[in-house]
Amino acid sequence: MRLPFFATAVALAFSLAVPGVALSAEVYRWTDEYGQVVYGTWVPERYRANAVPANTPLPRGTSACEAKWHRYLASAACFDQYRVVGGGLKPEAYQRCTEVPQPDPCT
User: Fold this and answer.
1) ∠ at Cα 103 (99, 107), nearest 5°?
2) Do strands 52-53 and 37-40 pair parallel, antiparallel, or not at all (unpaired)?
3) What whole-number distance in Å separates Cα of residue 75 and Cα of residue 90?
4) Taking burial as the number of CB atoms within 10 A of a residue's CB, which of 36, 73, 91, 104 is the most buried?
5) How far, in Å, are 20, 28, 32, 88, 97 from residue 74 at the CA level?
6) What is the pLDDT of residues 7-65, one digit of tens each?
């Protein structure tokens, strides 16, 4: 059964308006004024010029341990956007984010 165009358009608009249905936001990384690399889906204005998508290749000389932490922190930033009150996660978080275990500290 085909829906008329208007009904299809209304259904699409409604599905996009329902929280959790929209695609996840992109995760960015930037360095703050203390030299710390920060990950998030929202970049403060003063860091926007230096922010890059988290999946941008890491700089040369990045150690294997630092690369593991990069993957972990980018994963955590992705999951953060799906947290609910009480600490739970919306089910779609596992469809849109890659779960990465916390690595050991770098030595």
Assistant:
1) 160
2) unpaired
3) 15
4) 73
5) 19, 8, 16, 19, 9
6) 333 333 333 333 333 345 699 999 999 999 999 999 999 999 999 999 999 989 999 99
Question: The tokens 């403060």 sit on which residue?
Answer: 44
Q: What residue type is 50 in one-letter code?
A: N
Q: How far apart are CA 56 and CA 74, in angstroms?
A: 11
Both tokens of 3, joined, read 């829906």
Q: Are strands 37-40 and 28-31 parallel, antiparallel or unpaired?
A: antiparallel
Rounded to a whole number, what is the distance in angstroms from the first to the last CA of the chain? 62
Output Rg (C-alpha) for the chain, integer angstroms: 18
Q: Where are the domains of the chain?
A: 25-107
Cα separations in angstroms, 55 against 3, 11, 70, 99: 39, 33, 9, 15
Q: Provide the residue count of the chain.
A: 107
- The residue type of 31 is T
Measured distance CA(22)–CA(13) in Å, rounded: 11
